[in-house]
Amino acid sequence: MTQSQSPIFKSPGDDTEMEQAAAKARQTFRYFWREMAWEQRRIIPGLDLATVKASFSDPPEIRAKNPHGLDVEHMWLMELEFDGKQIQGTLINSPHSLKSFHEGDRVTIPGKQLFDWMYVVAGNVYGGFTVDLMRSRMTKGERAQHDKAWGFDFGEAGTVPLVPPEYIGDPALKKKKLFSILGGAKSPPQDYAKVAAAEHPMSINMRKSLEQALTKDPQMALQTDDRGFNLLHQLSLAGSWDGVDVCLKHGVDPKVTALNGMTPFALAKCLGWKRVMERLQQAGAT
After folding, report:
1. How many CA atoms lie within 13 A of 75 on its CB side?
2. Angle, to 10 degrees, between the axis of helix 129-136 and the axis of helix 140-150?
3. 3-state SS, residue 53
4. Where are the alpha helices (DSSP H) in the chain?
5. Contact status, residue 26 vs residue 130, Cβ threshold 8 Å
6. What is the pLDDT averaged over residues 109-130?
7. How far apart are CA 282 and CA 278, in angstroms?
8. Residue range 18-71, pLDDT digits in tens
């Protein structure tokens, strides 16, 4: 089943549980973007899938011509970019009734429009708060069918891990038979406090090589991408304390702004990377 053929799940506009699930997705989006940022640096891709779900509505003048259409549709995006203010991606769903959007469109959304996020490593799903809620409302048979259609292991309904367990020193997930009618293996909820306290493994592992590279070529940290992000901007948005620390020790200015006007501190703050914010303030960021 392709994403454009995925079934439509309807929920009332006053679905409090769904809004709470979406709020959790927005609150934890930093872990998704951190994984995306490191994926962009991997020589061999590590993610099976990385996608966000966003809310879409037609403009009033178009809605007036389509009175029986849905007011809001939630659709998935891939090929993602994020600059600290807006998320850009490609729609991988075909709208059910909206007229302003089409599968394959390149769209840009503000963060408040984010409804969910999800990435997959070795077949295991991380994130997916609204997906988890929908799965919890299904029968075991419906969940098995849902998971088989996606082709991934969503685990036990009611638990939403943010990162692979190895990141926080927990035992790696055991391989289990996919699409079992019993669902994923029983496991305790992930300790979000441990997740918040843990540095990404790639951030730790690349510290020595980054120090060597900047010692050899200090200008490398000052090169900018098409957003005006230098290495310090990039690592601040990715929540890399080690990377930020190395850049600052090699004299990278923490006050330089990117093309969107954001400093490294502002980029770290937008996702709530507190340790990175503190390190930048120690270096003179305001």
Report:
1. 29
2. 140
3. strand
4. 16-27, 29-39, 60-63, 129-136, 140-150, 192-197, 201-205, 207-216, 231-237, 241-249, 264-271, 274-282
5. no
6. 96
7. 6
8. 999 999 999 999 999 999 999 999 999 999 999 999 999 999 898 888 888 888
Q: How far is CA 132 from CA 77, 80, 142, 153, 266, in A?
A: 18, 22, 13, 12, 32
Q: Which two tokens stand for residue 150?
A: 């996606």
Under a CB-based contact definition with an 8 Å cutoff, are residues 2 and 114 in contact? no
Give yes or no for a contact between 130 and 54, defined as CB atoms under 8 angstroms apart: no
**32: which residues sit within 8 A by CB, 6+ positions away?**
50, 52, 117, 118, 119, 127
Q: What string of DSSP letters covers 165-231?
A: GGGGTPPPPPP--TT-TT-SPP-PPP-HHHHHHPPPHHHHHTHHHHHHHHHH-GGGGG---TTS--H
Q: How many residues does the chain have?
A: 286
How far apart CA 117 and CA 51 sit, in angstroms, is: 6
pLDDT tens-digit readout, 186-240: 668 999 999 999 999 999 999 999 999 999 999 999 999 999 999 999 999 999 9
Burial class of 37 by CB neighbour count within 10 A (0 to 12, 13 to 18, 19+): buried
Pair 88, 108: CB distance under 8 Å? yes
Which pTM does this prediction carry? 0.91
- Provide Rg for the chain, Cα atoms: 20
Amino acid at 212: Q
C-alpha–C-alpha distance, residues 56 and 100, integer Å: 9
Q: Which domains does the chain have, with CATH numbers?
A: 3-197 (no CATH), 201-282 (1.25.40.20)
String of b and e for 220-237 (b: at least 16 CB within 10 Å)? ebeeeeebebbbbbbbbb
Exposed (0-12), middle (13-18) or buried (19+): which is 250, by Cβ within 10 Å? Answer: middle
